[in-house]
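Bug #77: duplicate submission created two jobs. Keeping one. Sequence:
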Amino acid sequence: MLAGPPRLVSAVTIFLLLVLVWWYFQLIRRDVPLTYDHSPPPEIPSKTPLTPSISSVDPLDFSIPLKFQPGTPKPPGSKYSRVLVLPKTIEEEIGWIHAELPDLPLAVYEVDNASAQYRVPKNKGREAMVYLTYLIDHYDDLPDTILFFHSHRYAWHNNILMGLDSAQTIGRLNDARVARMGYMNTRCHQDPGCPDWIHMDRPAIDFDFFKKPEEIYYRKAVWEELHPGAPIPPALSQPCCAQFAVSRERVRQVPRERFVHYRKWLLETSLDDQYSGRVFEYIWQYIFTGNAVYCPAANSCYCDGYGICFGGAVKYAEWFAIMDERNKLYDELNVYNNEKKEAEDKGRKFEFTKEAQEKMKELEDEIRKLDPQMEKLRNEAFKRGEDLKSREMETETYDDTHIWDHLNQS
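Kept job's structure:
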């Protein structure tokens, strides 16, 4: 058997393959110059906006959430222009404002006076009608800070550490906080209203007609009338009771048409005066922040908002724990005093038993120990609030640049 020819074919094949490989490497080693396109980019027609403008969006399309931007406060020590928007009836007295806040510009709406300087289209919806009317009529002419308050000076829902006094609340309020946050509920205490308050899907058997009488009226249909297209939130929460401050910039981040829409709803709804107004009590935070639940820390509210700083949430809570203990003792003592007063009112002679007298003295002694302790801590909180560094440490912030510095000081 001959084997020569196959060896010859294999050699030729190998030779051709080597030639092809050599040719390929010679080809890819050649330098191929790159060609650059130096022509200018195509022009964008000036009439074509890069991003959709606010005016191009339907202001009443609530399915598109408003994007609120945080504000920038003025330099420390700067003055802020203000106005106090106040609903009242003819009979209600507001002399306390002129006496305590004489330089504060006012927009007083006498809701039952057709010839008043500031008027509403209809006396319905409590303070909500007044607030909305002011925002509509003065949308283009607003001061730095707009304060929305009731006409009474003292109320249970005002801030405890300022004696439940609206004059102190307004006088101490930090405009820089309002400028930064855009919206500030002027009540620091979270109960009632936070953290989990109005539920539009709550079963009827679970309604609380004492604490939340408005909840039964705040159902899905009402939300959809007020915010057509917006998703229904799981809950609506903020501290009660419809007194707040808002910055000019934040007001103008809400289209004026929305305030007109809200007032139109107030005018046309079948809900009565009381409950149509209370519906708004738990949506002001939604209108001005986009948050259905808005419950700032109470100690931050007091410290940054009013310059009353306990040095953190724990120490703040400790003061109120002492207050609760003191009030519990006072209530217990008051049972004895009321028993005596009730008997005397009926013309009966009354004397405490020896055991009752001893218990009353014990309660009085305990109260006398706690009162100066509370006063000392309260005065220290007011003094601490004068220090800008202390206020900064209790102020909410997303900036974590110096967070470890704060932690090391705690």
